[in-house]
Amino acid sequence: MTKFKPNGFVVFANEYKRTHNVQYYTFRELLDVISPFWNELPETDKERYKDKAKANAKRLEFKRTRETSNNEEVLEKRLKLVDVEADKKQRIEDLVYTASDLGELDDKIFYFVNISTFFEDLNDVYPAEFALAKYSLRKGLIDTLHIKINPGELPLGASYPALEKANKTHKYLLPNVKEGSNYDYGESSYLLILMSILDFIDPIEDAPIDDLPLFFTEGSSVNDYNKLISVQKAFVRIFEKAGEYDIASDLKLYSVVDLFYYLNEVSNTSVVYPEDKNEKFSSLTHADESFRRADRLFGYLAKGCDFHEENDVLRSCCLSRVRSYGYILSKYCVNSVKYPLIEGKHFPKDFHIEP
């Protein structure tokens, strides 16, 4: 048996195997066959194969280092995500229980947000529609804000995926498709959009804009977390496009499912008679399942904008979505014995929530 020769000889053996019909040889058999050929090679050719072997070794080491680095980066990102989500849950829990302890929870204002887009990639996002809702347990849906957005020309290559997305969801025409002077493409000034948002949050003139409330949207660590990330990305982009980079960097969205879970928990601790309690969730996963089940109902009953009402795509209407959040929270988190539920505020008009 010929002694195994490393480095250049191995490269030579692999090259020989590729160019000759020896695919059925074992590697050891191959070495015995080609050893005489290797021994007869001029030293210059042997050096060439040795250089190839060194280059291959460097590429392999680089690949291993990169894969290890990538794995560590992915793991680090996952751990950070777990920490961020844990912090968010803790903040929501503290918010709810502190307000409850102070007797302020019934009138505490919560803001729901939803945004649909034409197109988004790693560098930018092109929003299509925006909606905000102002909600409290006592009053239900207090007010809503709905804005159709014209993001301007889409980037090269974005029209086809944007058209596919529009056809499957919000049905708006792409901003670079000309339909005539009567078609409303939406508001194109991000500054005006931002001013509308800030005025909705705090209508007091000259109020500071650096003290934003918490915002809640769909998606959670349990289910469809990417939806939350997508809404946050679009929401932040609106602030950035309006030139408010400092505020945009601090803008955070929280899961309405997490809020749903803790509000439900608190609502059941303050009830005297068991028959007055709402369905209690054993875990966040249980709450998420109940939220999604209720959403299948209210997602079709919550009133949307005129365009989506006419085109029968309410589940893709941002205005309908934020109203749906309010109805779901009202069904499971409001004690109807403590104060009466209001039609159109706690539940859709012409609809009765069964106890």
Describe the structure.
- With 355 residues, the chain is α/β, with parallel strands linked by helices.
- It folds into two domains: 8-58; 110-333, Ribonuclease H-like superfamily/Ribonuclease H (Nucleotidyltransferase, domain 5), CATH 3.30.420.10.
- The chain is built from eleven helices and five strands, in the order αααβββααβααβαααα.
- A hairpin with a 4-residue loop joins strand 1 (110-120) and strand 2.
- It is elongated and about 95 Å long.
- The termini are far apart.
Q: How many H/I helical runs?
A: 11
CATH architectural designation of the largest domain: 2-Layer Sandwich
Task: Using the coordinates shown, work out and report the CATH topology of the largest domain.
Answer: Nucleotidyltransferase, domain 5
Indicate the CATH class of the largest domain: Alpha Beta
Q: Which secondary-structure class do the elements indicate?
A: alpha/beta
What name goes with the CATH superfamily of the largest domain? Ribonuclease H-like superfamily/Ribonuclease H
Task: Spell out the helices and strands N to C.
Answer: HHHEEEHHEHHEHHHH
CA radius of gyration: 30 Å
Shape field: elongated
Oligomer: single chain
